[in-house]
Amino acid sequence: MRALLVDHSAPAGLRLGEAPDPVPAPDEALVRVTATSLNPGEVTGVIPGSPDGAVPGWDAAGVVERAAADGSGPAPGTPVATLGLAGGWAELRAVRTDLLGVVPAEADLGAIATTPVAGLSALRALHRLGPVLGRRVLVTGATGGVGRYAVQLARRGGAHVVATTGDPDRHGDRLRALGAHEVVADPGELADPVHGVLDLVGGPQLVRAHGRLAARGTLVSVGRASGEPTAFPAGAFEGMGAHDRTIATFFLLDCPDLGPDLTWLAGQVHAGALDPNVTWRGSWRDADAALAALVERRLHGKAVLDLD
Ligand SMILES: NC(=O)c1ccc[n+]([C@@H]2O[C@H](COP(=O)([O-])OP(=O)(O)OC[C@H]3O[C@@H](n4cnc5c(N)ncnc54)[C@H](OP(=O)(O)O)[C@@H]3O)[C@@H](O)[C@H]2O)c1
């Protein structure tokens, strides 16, 4: 099969080449992939840290070629969205049936390919906050792939949504169109406290977001797009208003029962009720251009590669 392979001698660390077909375990379906989407962790972590010849890829959408031998999961011919730690950037993917969502017939599989990592992370991190109806929720790094899903889902959940971006003048209108009530450059600007935070930036921005958390509020630390260390000042966890605030850690692939949520997200995207925010789309032959846009922070939203 053809696949995007790690090749440290190539400019972006990847080349389109030939790899052995995957051999599915009994609980895995074999999926013919037609589209994938990129995530920053793959570019900054997986590609540099993998040996030559490895096939990366967390997100992939396609059609079941062969059902799992144990009888679980959908039948051949079913369109699906899939999640895994590797192997998504290839024509064939063996994927555990509990990490697979069923996609409506006729759906745009490119749009659906944005749902596994970005959509599920936003949804599951939001679940961790508990009910948000009528409550203030802050999403940091809201212009990114996860953030744009998080803004939409928090708004759907009835929250008063506050979004941060490094450039509110440039991104404010888009974030408000997705559902943000307020757009600010930094959590430190907020006059009123928030009940919940989905933090995608980390570092000093996480510390300032935590500083705006109301008593009994929760901050879910999902990402660290800034790459900066997080250092709390002395006294950050005590004093008036600081009672019983929670910082929760998050790792998507440790979340149980992702399949039904992936099916739901795919249906919402197909119905037009959730915008996948595809801001770069092209052939996987042009993966280098998408990778460069992501690394250079020119890409806000999701990059989708079609396996043509
Ligand atoms: N824990 C998990 O299981 C899990 C799952 C999914 C994602 N993540 C992590 O969550 C984070 C967000 O993921 P994503 O896919 O939404 O990423 P993304 O599309 O790259 O978006 C990240 C956003 O963070 C903002 N940002 C602020 N400071 C930045 C900096 N120094 N460099 C780059 N961006 C910066 C950017 O917004 P502005 O330019 O508008 O400021 C950007 O849009 C990443 O760290 C990712 O690895 C973790």
TrEMBL record:
SUPFAM superfamilies: GroES-like, NAD(P)-binding Rossmann-fold domains. Residues 9-305 form the Enoyl reductase (ER) domain. InterPro entries: ADH-like_C (IPR013149), ADH-like_N (IPR013154), ER (IPR020843), GroES-like_sf (IPR011032), Lipid_raft_assoc_Zn_ADH (IPR052585), NAD(P)-bd_dom_sf (IPR036291). SMART domains: PKS_ER. It comes from the Bacteria. PANTHER family: PROTEIN AST1-RELATED. This is NADPH:quinone reductase-like Zn-dependent oxidoreductase.
